[in-house]
Amino acid sequence: MTGRLPACGSGNFRPGVRRLDPSDMRAAAVVHREARHEATPWLAALHTPEEDRWYFEQRVLPACRLWGALDQAELVGIIAFRDDWIDHLYILPKAQGRGIGTELLTLAQSSFDRLHLWTFQRNRQARLFYEARGFALARETDGARNEENEPDSLYVWQR
Predict the structure, then answer these.
(1) Per the confidence metrics, is the pTM higher than 0.90?
(2) pLDDT digits (tens, 9 = 90+) for 25-55
(3) How big is the CA angle at 77 (ends 76 and 82), to the nearest 5 degrees?
(4) Cα–Cα dist 112/100, whole Å
(5) DSSP readout, 30-92?
(6) Three-state SS for 124?
(7) Ramachandran assignment for 91, one of left (phi > 0), alpha (psi -120 to 50 degrees), beta (any other)
(8) Which domains does the chain have, with CATH numbers?
(9) Ramachandran assignment for 158, one of left (phi > 0), alpha (psi -120 to 50 degrees), beta (any other)
(10) CA-CA distance, 126 to 76, in Å (whole number)?
(11) What mean pLDDT do residues 146-158 have?
């Protein structure tokens, strides 16, 4: 093996996974924005790209363990988790379906015996992803408490 990672289009995609640092926040914000837009096209963009970057630098990075999956030097997926919560898990559309989300999710699952997360009720793909990995629906809300005002679902996983 040469040490190079396979390209996104190859069948055996194995990303490099590492802890992210402040220099990665612009790329993390891009992954978040692009993946979220792809998964939830019905949601209006409430923030600018610069606001997204600020959010990752000032809110997510200080509060969470933030890890990324890289294909060569490109950040293609992120997970942010803390205590027993997953705050963010996003994979670029071009890198989905290759096990990256599962690999990042496994990092959080290996760190805690119980995890919680929210996802939008209409995000069927995310709901199926989490359910297939042992998360159970705990409750649903009308979305009045999230900034998008979009009905959401709370999921819980326990070892």
Answers:
(1) no
(2) 999 999 999 999 999 888 888 899 999 999 9
(3) 155
(4) 19
(5) HHHHHHHHHH-TTS---S-HHHHHHHIIIIIHHHSEEEEEEETTEEEEEEEEETTEEEEEEE-
(6) helix
(7) beta
(8) 16-158 (3.40.630.30)
(9) beta
(10) 17
(11) 96
